[in-house]
Design goal:
The structure holds 2 protein chains of 2 kinds. Chain A has 3 helices and 8 strands. Chain A is of the alpha+beta class. The chains are: A alpha+beta, B alpha+beta.
């Protein structure tokens, strides 16, 4: 077992170092017990609607999914990997043109095998979300150490 | 008057995020198959390795929008209202395919389902059900 501080640090590291997270430029905003928030900055190549310059809803999907994973592992001192079972996203409105997006997630129930998570994403104001998500994840035993044979 | 193939090509080329993913599509009659070649920047789990769940979800959503671009002759991008994504198998480090079924295309709303697979279409890795708000001309 590792210390709570080390556990948070490991989760934060995972949140931004996974190849697709790095490709989308994910930055850690905050992390706490069963909670996490991540930002993705606006970039021309992430645009979904060339007429408006609004970031693609697919980026929001990846960000919400990733942020849910962060909330599950945040503060857990035992190591395990997660896989998404089900992810439901409602898109309330497009993000503002040329704006980055922040997502925050809360793992509100964790059983021995399943994690239930809610998340939301916004551009400027957390109280005016662009999208909300509800997800279920399955927990897969301890994650192998980095570099271990699969 | 543009052909469905031209409308699809225009859609795929005009959306920067589709190029970021590396997604392409082939059209046979009115049946479109979307193709997502494996690339290292799509990995979400380095241990397996496996595609990021968000990548698979985004790919299926873009497949739905691409299929809509085939039947809807408008340069505007339709808006996603909601998606429900079901993950069935890990996305492995190989090419992923997807096909969309336009269950209903109404005046304002389209109901679409999408399935994504890798080695065999009978063993899908994920499915999506979504509602899309259609942009008029």
């Amino acid at each position: 077992m590792i210390s709570p501080e080390e556990a948070l640090k490991a989760a934060a590291q995972m949140a931004t170092s996974v190849p697709h997270a790095a490709a989308l430029g994910f930055e850690l905003v905050s992390i706490g017990e069963s909670r996490g928030a991540i930002r993705t900055p606006w970039r021309e190549e992430l645009v979904g609607d060339p007429a408006t310059g609004v970031i693609a809803s697919g980026v929001v999907t990846a960000l919400l999914d990733h942020c849910c994973g962060l909330a599950i592992t945040a503060g857990r001192r035992d190591s395990f990997s997660t896989a998404t079972l089900d992810l439901r996203i409602d898109y309330m409105r497009p993000a503002a043109p040329r704006m980055g997006i922040v997502a925050s997630a809360h793992c509100y129930k964790l059983t021995r095998t399943i994690a239930f998570v809610r998340a939301q994403a916004w551009d400027a104001d957390p109280n005016d979300p662009i999208a909300t998500a509800q997800a279920a994840f399955i927990l897969n035993g301890p994650a192998p150490a980095p570099g271990a044979a699969s | 008057m543009t052909t469905p193939a031209e409308q699809l090509k225009t859609f795929l080329q005009s959306v920067p995020y589709i190029r970021f993913l590396g997604m392409t599509a082939e059209l046979a009659g009115d049946e479109m198959t979307a193709i997502l070649p494996f690339a290292p920047h799509l990995i979400g789990n380095t241990f397996l390795p496996a595609l990021h769940g968000g990548v698979i979800g985004a790919f299926m959503e873009m497949t739905a929008l691409a299929q809509l671009s085939v039947v809807q002759d408008t340069p505007k991008v339709h808006k996603t209202i909601d998606v429900t994504i079901e993950y069935l198998r890990p996305g492995r480090s190989m090419t992923t395919y997807a096909r969309a079924d336009l269950r209903k295309v109404g005046r304002r709303i389209a109901n679409v389902t999408v399935e994504a697979w890798q080695e065999a279409k009978e063993s899908p890795i994920a499915a999506l059900r979504g509602h899309f708000l259609l942009s008029g001309d």
